[in-house]
Structure formats: C-alpha cells, structure tokens
Amino acid sequence: MEHSPRVRAETIRKSCKAKVRGQGYSTKRRHFSRTTAKILQRTTAKILQRTTAKILQRTTAKILQRTTDKILQRTTDKILQRTTAKILQRTTAKILQRTTDKILQRTTDKILQRTTAKILQRTTAKILQRTTAKILQRTTDKILQRTTDKILQRTTDKIQ
Question: Radius of gyration over alpha carbons of the chain, in Å?
Fold first, then answer.
C-alpha cells in the first residue's frame, strides 16, 4: 500500500523521534540527521553543478554570440571600407586615365583639324592672292607691252 509523500514524511519523523534520555537526542535521530545532511549535500551539489553548467553554457553561448557578432560586424565593416576604398581608387584612376586620354585625343584631333583647315585656308588665300596678283601683273604687263608694241608698230607703219 502506497502512501502520499506527506504520510511518508510523517512516518519517518515518528520513527526517528528522539526519546529523551537525559538531555540529548537519541542515536537514531543523530544518525538520520547526518545521513539526510549527506544526501542533501550530494543532491544539492549535483543539482547545483548541473544547473550552473547549463546556465553558464547558455550565458556564455549568448555572450560569445553577441560579442563575436559585434566584433565580426566591426571588422568586416572596416575591411570592406578599406578594400572598397582601395578598389574604387584604383578603378577610378584607371577609368579617368583612359577616358581623359580618349577625350584629349578626340578633342586635340578636332581642334587640330579645325585650326589647320583655317590656317591652310587663310594662308592659301593669301598666297593665291599674292601669286595671282603677281602673275596677273606680269601677264598684263607683257600683254600690254606686246599690244602696245604692235599698235605702235602698225601706227608707225601707217604713218610712214
């Protein structure tokens, strides 16, 4: 026949009650108190060990996770910032160099083409003007001289 925990505790107390012999407790009572103290000590030690182990494990896991997350975030942010800055600097320098080279080449080609065209046009116009003036002058001088010579000869021939 099973009893409830309360009934069991009462029966243990009754069986271990001290029979007064003078002033102290009976040996049964002392023995019981020593064994219960030992059992309690062992069980509490085990329970404390287990619970503290679990609590420590959980808390250390949480703390480690938080700290590693923070440290990783900071370091990755720093590393990413540095590397992206370096990469951006290199790539922008290369791109700028290429584009400026191309733009300079195109613009210098266009400017040279325009200026050379203008200069050639001006100089050729001046040269042509001068040469044509000289040639015209020479030819007109020659033609005039010839014609005047012929006319003078004819007229002198007629007069004579």
Answer: 62
Q: How far apart are CA 158 and CA 160, in angstroms?
A: 5
Query: What is the rounded distance in angstroms from the CA atom of residue 131 to the CA atom of residue 150?
Result: 28
The residue behind tokens 């182990």 is 53
19 band by pLDDT with thresholds 50, 70 and 90: very low
Return the DSSP state at 17: P
d(CA 16, CA 30): 9
Compute the average pLDDT of residues 32-56. Answer: 82
d(CA 4, CA 115): 116
State the CB neighbour count (10 A cutoff) for residue 64: 10
**Per-residue DSSP letters for 18-51?**
PPPBTTB--HHHHHHHHHHHHHHHHHHHHHHHHH
